[in-house]
Amino acid sequence: MTRGYRRYTVGARERLCLRMGFCRMTRTASIEGQSIGERRLDGAKKSMVRVVAPAIAALLVVGLAACGNSEKPAAAGGSGGAADLGTLKVLQVTPNDVSAVALAATFKLNMWEGTGLKVETVLGQPSTEAAALTRGDMDLSTRGASSQLANMAKGVPAKLMGAVRLPTSMYLVSSTKSGINDPEDLRKGGINFGISSFGSSSDEVVKAVVTHYALSQDQYKVTALGDIKGILAAFKRGDIDAFAWSAGDAFAMEGEGLGKVLGNAEQWQQPSVSVAYAVSDKAIKERPEALKKFFEVYYSAVEKLRADPKIALDIYVNDWKYPQAVGEKAVKDELPTLSTDGQIPAENLKNLGATVSESFEIKDLDATKYWDYWKNLE
């Protein structure tokens, strides 16, 4: 664990608010420990939500991977003459940033039609991932790779199968009230960093920053706020001085005159794995053909976005409701960070394992044990 790292968490009342909050710019239904069969969202015609795991609290069913106000059902795809591959359920923790844009594009471009595969997306809190994969309620999940690997090392039966992005596309943002206008100002200390959760990608950025600037324990503190909604709320109130997140939210704060983007976190971190797809062992064993088709379509979507960035911009601006300038900045800076094949180089995997070993105090962690490249599926 990084020396002098101080941990602070929000109270029960704030955690409840975070769990009950709706995902920004998406149509969602909040499920809080209830058993609900089917429910309409916003009265949408034939847009039904099917709860796949009512025992898992705080899962939010998302209409088509947060693709705005789509009238399409939560499951998309069809055989179109192809062999029926059934339905795969994908858990998303952060739906409206670059790590989600390619999956959103698969729905927007109707790329599941004719594949034989149906895909459902479910929005959940970070704390729901381990239980969802362990029980087999979810087949795949996408979030920060360090948290995924830590869960696997602690016993969650799953493997990393494909990188979403290798270099971090997170940006460090300081509050205009903090007096931090340049990265070198961080050396002054007295900073309260906001993160989503300990061990998350945002947490890893903070650790890299405080290590780089040799900040002592009494020069900073770290507050866990649950998700980006909690982070932004605290930032706007002035409860935290800085946070690290993707370009969309980072530059939105700068555009509103509330923050100053200090730089991309890549300058403080070693090559690693930022976001990845984790797949349950059950799905790997029982659904290899469906998984292979999923990844083929997903990475094909990345290629389409690379070839025509206007598709991604349309998702950012028209579906996710980011300002045009912010969307353009996010697409320009972040789209190139998306992996086009999901491969993780040995050096990146080694660094990921070292980071998780230190952050979660897991001795002798060998990340290769939890890596199973999707192209090797049989």
From TrEMBL:
The cellular component terms of Gene Ontology attached to this UniProt record, alphabetical and capped at eight, are: periplasmic space
The record's subcellular locations are: Periplasm
The SsuA/THI5-like domain extends over 114-310
Recorded superkingdom: Bacteria
Q: Which Pfam families match?
A: NMT1
Q: Which UniProt keywords apply?
A: Membrane, Signal, Transmembrane, Transmembrane helix
Transmembrane portions of the chain? 48-66
InterPro entries membership: SsuA/THI5
Tell me its family: Belongs to the bacterial solute-binding protein SsuA/TauA family.
PANTHER family given in the database record: ALIPHATIC SULFONATES-BINDING PROTEIN-RELATED (PTHR30024), TAURINE-BINDING PERIPLASMIC PROTEIN (PTHR30024:SF47)
Its recorded name reads SsuA/THI5-like domain-containing protein
